[in-house]
Amino acid sequence: MKKLMIAASCALAMFAGGVQAEGRDLRIAFDVPYEPFEYKDENGELTGFEVDLAAAMCEEMKADCEFVIQAWDGMIPGLLARKFDLIMSSMSITPERAERVLFSEPYYNTPGGWFGPESFNADVTDMDSMKGKTVGVQRGTTMDTYVTEEMSGVVTIKRYTTADDMVLDLEGQRLDVVFVDYPVGEQTVLTKDGFKEVGEPVKLGEGVGVAMRKRDKDIAEEVNAALRKLKEDGTYDAIMKKYFAYDVKV
Amino acid sequence: MPPDFIAAWLNKNEIFTAMTIMEYWDGMVTTVQLVFLCLVIGLAFAVPLAILRTVKNPFVSGPVWLYTYLFRGTPLLIQLYIIYYGIAQIPGIQQTFWWEIFREPFYPALLAFSLNTCAYTTEIIRGAIVSTPHGEIEAAKAYGMNWFMRMRRIVLPSAARRAVQAYSNEVIFMLHSSAIASVVTIVDLTGAARNIYSRFYAPFEAFIFVALCYMALTFILVFVFRKIENHLLRHQRPAGS
């Protein structure tokens, strides 16, 4: 068995070094629903900006891809445990994550947005007017980090696992305001009556990249090359126009 | 272990800083408050409910049976979701004084946990009451004790002895069940672990530490219940010991 594995890894190394690996098998993980990046349409088909981009990327890499659904909490552990090979689920590039996984170049960046009820009248950049407010964020996101660093002690921070739970508490008036990935807020909060955007969007971090295991440097090279190609030949722009009215390209 | 070794180790690691330890401590305080309060409330209501449950009249025992059936028949997580999100959906609740209480996640969780543990405790005590030996009750009647005095002097004390082991299990289950409070944004022990895990992406450190905290709390509970058992069951010890 061990010999076989050594032989297999030698063969793999030769492939990677030589011609483009033909028909590499890749499993790509998404956390659904996260509209408009990855969600199921009315027929139950997995779709969204990142799903389409992943499909185009696989075609470019001539890889045989399988899409896997994985809850956000288990994303990085699942990747490290080889349950899948790539994460393309709006994972922002952060130094803490980069310690555990290998990131590709960023492939999109959306700002964080402030959303609240019509009656909300505080200024989100002014700490005095925000004093005592309750802010909802999704646990472990760049929005969470931002609020934790900038507003700890001024506001009460409530952390949620899913955006749905958070929006339910915003509607139930347990939260005064939420700070959430802009497109997610647009899809979940602004579609409801009585809610509006209550502050300027904030650009956070480097953007979102494909996450891989640290040792998969050869896959990372292929992924970067494919993404660059898609950004140049217009495929990226076509997919982006399908889901966004504004620019998320980096 | 020499203290400088600990200091060196603490300096090297990023996860167990003074700040995260404080977060765990606050979480532990919340967990203990939540579990202690729900157990006190649950037990206080369980004793009278268990007595009502043993009454022959079905119009008295029926509703109690229905209550224990509902709360033992559904998962605690679902009960918590219904109470936490359900209350916020009642039209106009936000304008009443109840909202002052139910706005915070602590009280909906306390309500759900109390109702749940009360249902289980009611059944534990009921089981102990109905297994009271007939001879004891007949003897009490022969002494001319009325129903109330029989309950107070004979049935309940001996039921307590029979219920205490099963109840200690319920207490430990409740401690562990309280971990689900973190799904409604309460930062209990598990909530603290989840926050720290998501900040450092270190599931082993974050969760193993919190598991040890729960084990320490369980150890205290086991110790306390052994003392209580020793006290209640002292008549069963060999003479002179």
From TrEMBL, chain A:
Could you tell me which residue ranges the Solute-binding protein family 3/N-terminal domain spans? 25-247
**Which keywords appear in this protein's UniProt record, sorted alphabetically?**
Signal
PROSITE patterns according to UniProt: SBP_BACTERIAL_3
Compartments reported by the entry: Cell envelope
Q: Which domain of life is it from?
A: Bacteria
Q: Which residues constitute the signal peptide according to the record?
A: 1-21
Record flagged with keyword Ribonucleoprotein? no
Which SUPFAM superfamilies does this one have? Periplasmic binding protein-like II
Q: Which SMART domains match?
A: PBPb (SM00062)
* InterPro entries linked: SBP_3_CS, Solute-binding_3/MltF_N
Q: Among its keywords, does the record have Signal?
A: yes
**TM spans, by residue?**
none
Q: Which family does it belong to?
A: Belongs to the bacterial solute-binding protein 3 family.
Per its record, how is this protein called by name?
Answer: Transporter substrate-binding domain-containing protein
Q: To which species is this protein native?
A: Marinobacter aromaticivorans
Taxonomic lineage is: Bacteria, Pseudomonadati, Pseudomonadota, Gammaproteobacteria, Pseudomonadales
UniProtKB/TrEMBL annotation, chain B:
Q: Which residues form the ABC transmembrane type-1 domain?
A: 28-225
Q: Which InterPro entries match?
A: AA_ABC_transptr_permease_3TM (IPR010065), ArtM/GltK/GlnP/TcyL/YhdX-like (IPR043429), MetI-like (IPR000515), MetI-like_sf (IPR035906)
Q: Which domain of life is it from?
A: Bacteria
Pfam annotation, one family: BPD_transp_1
Indicate the principal place this protein occupies in or around the cell: membrane
Membrane association type: Multi-pass membrane protein
- Location relative to the cell: Cell inner membrane; Cell membrane
Keyword list (alphabetical) reads: Amino-acid transport, Cell inner membrane, Cell membrane, Membrane, Transmembrane, Transmembrane helix, Transport
Any stretches that span the bilayer, and where are they?
32-52, 64-86, 171-194, 206-225
Family under the similarity heading = Belongs to the binding-protein-dependent transport system permease family. HisMQ subfamily.
Name of protein: Arginine ABC transporter permease protein ArtM
